[in-house]
Amino acid sequence: MLSTMTQTHPAQTLTHTTRTITPRSPELDFAAVPRHWIADSSLATQIANGVNLLFPAGERFFVRSVRHYLEQLDDDALRTQVKAFFGQEGRHARAHERQFEVLREQGYDVDGFLRVYEPLLARIEKMSPPALRLSVTVALEHYTAIMAHGMLSDPEISDAMFPEMARLLRWHAAEEIEHKSVAFDVLTAVNPSYRVRMAGMGIATVGLAAFWIAATTHLLVQDRRAGRPLRRHDLDRIKTRKRSIARDVFAAGLRAYVRRDFHPNDVDDYALAEQFLRDAGMVAG
To answer: At 55, which helix (H) or strand (E)?
Structure first.
């Protein structure tokens, strides 16, 4: 996936001072979202629902990790971006929690997963020093930006989705791209250690993979109990999708991130976000 993105020359790498981050609150109506909202597929839907279950608590963790260092930042432009980053992440968390209500109405026990995931995440946060929490945030923002790029660059993905869910995820993706360098720039300002950055990547990779698999499995088991078992071609698609996620998200992300001179703006895909937001008529508010 990364190989298809537009690469910028190091001398032309964009910086936080060139980007405006705008929190938005689009109107989203999930009332008509069907149980299987991606191509009527249990597998595809639950993979997406699985990662969606991670977002609200995860994004609030991101905000706390970055806010810890807000008063230490001397760069006024970066401080402004950080505050806008808080606004965007808060709105994302609340929008996904509204979608959780639809899952509950459809009979899914999402709270059984959240009762394990959220306290475990809180415990990991409490045990980790601030620099490591920020480093984990930076790594997860990198993975999220990769997924956001895929969402906005491949229309077949959103075309297979129920329109309102596609709108939710494309809005989220656009703003993830818009603020993708913020946490990284904060880490660079307060603790530019390569070892700290890579330690955060290790924890982030293991944690994201484990929680995502657990959430997806939790939902797929409920589909099976509700009379929607996975068919043979679904099982084949699980293997294919696992390879795709491992290759296009995790492997691609790691290859870029391990470079000592890595910066999120090495990949200039802001035009993808700008085009969607302009076409969707999403403004601040």
So the answer is: helix 42-67
Tell me the two tokens of residue 237. 């698609």
The DSSP line for 216-236 is: HHHHHHHHHHTT-PPPHHHHH
Beta-carbon count within 10 A of 128 CB: 17
Q: Which amino acid is at 65?
A: S
Q: What is the dihedral of CA 63, 64, 68, 73, to 10 degrees?
A: 0
Q: In the chain, which residues have pLDDT < 50?
A: 1-17
Question: Do residues 99 and 33 touch, judged by C-beta distance below 8 A?
Answer: yes
Give alpha helix (H) positions in the chain.
42-67, 76-105, 110-127, 130-153, 155-159, 163-178, 182-190, 194-225, 232-245, 252-257, 270-280
Predicted local distance difference test score (pLDDT) of residue 9: 32
- Cα distance between residue 108 and residue 121, in whole Å: 22
State residue 240's pLDDT score: 57
135 and 201 Cβ atoms separated by less than 8 Å: yes
CB-neighbour burial class of residue 214 (10 A; exposed 0-12, middle 13-18, buried 19+): middle
Q: Counting Cβ atoms within 10 Å, is residue 52 exposed (0-12), middle (13-18) or buried (19+)?
A: buried
| Contact in structure between 73 and 11 (CB atoms under 8 Å) | no
pLDDT tens track for 116-168? 999 999 999 999 999 999 999 999 999 999 999 989 988 888 999 999 999 99
Domains of the chain, start order: 38-280 (1.10.620)
How wide is the angle at C-alpha 116 spanned by C-alphas 63 and 171, nearest 5°?
40
Q: What is the pTM of this model?
A: 0.88
N-terminal to C-terminal alpha carbon distance within the chain: 33
Cβ-proximal residues to 236 (8 Å cutoff; 6+ apart), any chain: none
Here the tokens at position 140 are 């997860």
Give the number of other CB atoms < 10 A from CB of residue 112: 11
